Amino acid sequence: MSSIKKGLLVTTLxxxxxALLATxxxxxxxxxNSYALVADGIESTTxxxxxxxxxxxLRISTKPADQCHPYGHGKAxxxxxxxxxxxxxxxxxxxxxxxxREILNPHHAPAWFxxxxxxxxxxxxxxxxxxxxxxxxxxxxxxVKCDAWHHRSDAITSAAAFVGISIALIGGPGYESADDWAxxxxxxxxxxxxxxxxxxxxxxxxxxxxxxxxxxxxRKLSAGVSGVVRIEKCxxxxxxxxxxxxxxxxxxxxMSVKGGHKIAHDVGEKLKSSPLRVKDVLxxxxxxxxxxxxxxxxxxx
Length: 301
Prior knowledge:
The chain is mainly alpha-helical. It folds into two domains: about 5-205, Alpha-lytic protease prodomain-like (Up-down Bundle), CATH 1.20.1510.10; about 210-300, Alpha-Beta Plaits (2-Layer Sandwich), CATH 3.30.70.1350. The protein is about 65% helix and about 10% strand. It has a three-stranded mixed β-sheet. β1 and β2 form a beta hairpin. α1 (about 5-30) runs antiparallel to α2 and α3 packs antiparallel against α6. The two termini are about 35 Å apart.
């Protein structure tokens, strides 16, 4: 199964499960007098929307380059990740505001039957998180990894609600708002991870540098091409599930234009056929200086 199909499949699964859980949690929360559970259901509703956004971003990112988008549509995946991360921050703010309102307005203690529902929710959402996180990491999709954290944030709020409701039921009168305090505490964790994921998505949109390990792998492969004397410069940026590479290669200064062009072509083909998910390569040929030698090709930037 291709990388994009894996991402679309896990996103579709998450959206379906979230829709079901949102209905169950909101209904149980309203009947069982637990705002923490209602808030949890609202958060699950935003998860459905986020999964749809992730799915759409992944689909658009696979479209080939065209006249208006000569570098392809890969950035759609990063945009989707940014929107999903912002939604995570929005959900945290919404739950926090309503939790404070519930704390300031005393209400009846939650019903005991809300607890087994929360146990099932935590187990389901943590399973979805692990599945989506594994797929997101394997295909290097920021959007899928953000969607995975929506699952985990749901598990966190559900676990917090379980603790809060348990305290309210055990403590009795005076502890009715324990589940609201629990929901408020969970918002901090959700907001922190929302900001962390948003920062990563924004870095990709701004063409931030990639890891040093990837730089070294690209340099090593390029240096292995026959005729390459030295790698003078290498720039890499992430676009969707792949990478765009701009590389300056030094060759024999007395070489013909035709010979230099062949080396540039060979470098590009070697990188694009490697497992590094390089989608496009721009090779700039430069004459090697007398001090250049083969070993310099593996030196650090």
